[in-house]
Amino acid sequence: MENMEVNEIFDIAIVGCGPAGLSAAINGANRKKKVAIFGTEFCSPKLHRAPSVENYLGLPNLTGEEMRKRFLGHLDVMKLSINKNKITGVYPEEDGFALQAKDKFYKTRTVVLATGVSTVKPIDKEVEYLGRGVSYCATCDGPLYKGKKVIVLAYNREGLEEANYLAELAAEVVLVPVLSEKDAQGVTLEQKIKVVKGKPKGIIGEMWATGVALEDQNLSADGIFIIRESVLPDQLVPGLEISNQGIKVDRSGATNIPGVFAAGDCTGAPYQLSKAAGEGQVAALAAVKYLDELKNKAREQLATV
To answer: Does the model's pTM come out above 0.90?
Structure first.
């Protein structure tokens, strides 16, 4: 991470703006920590779609959308905002972590992962070829494919925009749109982009990824870019321990990486609103305790010099 541009320095960076992430943000801010919230354009679609919420203590008979607006309203009261830059990597450093969002980097002392559960599972061999011809970030890795052929699997609107960016670099761009026509409205594709419709089944390759297998045909390319709403947790944070249930955490929300905590649906079932909000609070308070302990250790070391 040498020579990177650090735009901000935070005490707690929260990745995700669902109930767990927003709860973590509010509790971290209440403890006078500098908090950053990184989320999507719409927080949170899962809650928005709920026809009713009957089991949240003290707030009966609300729709999911009414609950969502109350959560966001709480952020407004506390003058907290959501950074819409998508985090694609979290990397440990000597005194904290660097968070990458395309060509921007943010510095934080602790991280709370509240990424929820992705409804889109990895395609066959996707994870195995990550970093070997498969990438989740066109801005990060696009320059490596200047003058070459690339495939973009676009699961959201951002994927279409990334295809346009790659069209400026690559000799050929093949776009496989895996999103609804409604979500694609308003995006004009560069003329050189070739659109191929089909459902991606897996990555083709040997030592290096060489293409994508669709249901009815195979596509070849020098590089493949897979653009979704969220990155798999263990790919987002290298070395993070996960299980079949989700990210492995203790009762404080601590992961196997010191300074990294997790909360909400990404830690496993039950996938309940109250559980997510509660875990967000616990993880934030654990991050605050971790920060205070680091500060006390630093003071003790100075006192002994």
So the answer is: no
